[in-house]
Fold:
Amino acid sequence: MNKKNKITLIIIAVLLIIGMSGLVYKRFDLTAEKRYTLSDSTISVLENVSKPMTIEVYLDGDFPASFKQLQNETKFMLDEFRKINPKIDYKFRDPIAEKIPQDTLAAMGMQPSILPDMKDGKVSEIVMFPYAAIKYNGYGTAVPLIVQQSGIDAATQLSKSIENLEYNFASTIKGLSEETAKNVGFLVNQQELSPDEFRGFMDVAMENYNIGPIIPENKTELSLADVPKLKQMDAIVIAKPRKAFTDNEKVILDQYIMNGGKTLWMIDAVNAEMDTLFQAKKIMAYPMDLNLTDFMFNYGLRINPALTKDMKKSALIRIVSGEVAGNPQYSSFLWPYFPLGIADTSTPLSVHPVTKNINPVKFEFPTSIDTLGRPNIKTKVLFESSERTISKTVPNYVALSEIVRADSIGEMERPAPPKIFAVALEGKFTSAYSTRSEKNAYPGFKSQSPENKMLVIADGDIARNQIWKGKPLPLGEDLLTKEHYGNAQFLRNALDYLLDDSNMMALRNRTIEIRLLDRERVDAERSKWQWINLLLPLGILGLLGAVFYFIRKKRFS
Structure:
């Protein structure tokens, strides 16, 4: 083969390699946490999208570098989505440059984020709408791209936002693309919260589930006539019952659980209302017997009829503290009867997917839960108080004068064990009536459930939204203090956790390390690396030149 033919073959081989590279594409994820590898549950959700889906990402324009990173991470992930299912397409938009009215964006559930910016020594503001709008089959919904969590810095916020990307998109796509949503029933018989007080939670539940009331056929108590309706429900919610459950009702609920039904309990063991306290300045708190002691004991739980006062981690209330020229003056004080639920993040294993990356959850006059342990049941504490906590036995007075000033936070003689506010139970539950005569009245009685889940909260007001001028406010929004608590996020995650049959919630436990540059080290070592980058290539060229010179000299000498 002559030299000309060799060159021709080489050129053909190179062209073939280039052509094949265009047909075969493979990206290798070399990150330690596999941040660019989609989970099996996400892939399954994407493969079930049977119609064209459009994702509009409102993350384009002139904004800080950290958001550019979020933009790139979002683009990488959506590229993977499109490779899994070509029916999914996306585009980035700049709502400010396109002059999209804010009212239009607000109607889609998008709220602006205002960021400070400095250019040429001048401080200005950047208005952003960090959301994505997913449109599918005539429906649409907004997906937040930024984790709105108080008390974290910008770097942590970016990291948490990137961690949540896959879950937020995948869970939303799952809700839009599923032909049949799961059913959630709200028990209406025990003098629970009114529809207006419960509106915020119902709005949250309706985003992904079919919801409806469970009203007894006989208008008095649950009976066997209600069993067919209960069987249609994948989960039921019991929110702040005020009337005691009968033994027959407990058997029916027990068998609902034994047949795989999921339950979300929000229980008040003590009666105490803030509205009355604001008016009277002092109220009598008293225990409420809901006849659930033996029922909960069967699952290894005991709800204590004593108020919990957290002197360290509590929400603020605004009260009149004085008067100027006849006008009342308001001040904010810590109210120890409104403790905050803050997720334990001390270790990766201590974080539960229900409580990860959410704002503090506001409890109102909660009691506490003792965990007793049961075979085949795994109990996970979701929220607990601080170590500066005391219990107040009831009946007892609660006075508005028990407010805590900010400069006296945590003033107690010695720490006390934290009090548990909320727990999640998983496992094969055993019936509370397996050895009792009540089982004979229930056809097809079951003594043990399949793998099941239950969530119990020692506070009925956690799902109650405030009402202003006859209109319900979003759940977690405090009108007077302007605080936004994570109650809606928590309860949304609770439903997702109970009804997750595709391991989607595991995505919320994903941890991603954002490896940012150390600015101090960059400034300190800048000159060194500049000289290295300048001299090292020259040194390599000089060395190669010397080697080439000696080889050539030896060959031709």
Observations:
- The chain has a mean pLDDT of 83.
- The chain has two domains: 33-177, 183-501.
- Residues 54 and 135 are 5 Å apart (CA to CA).
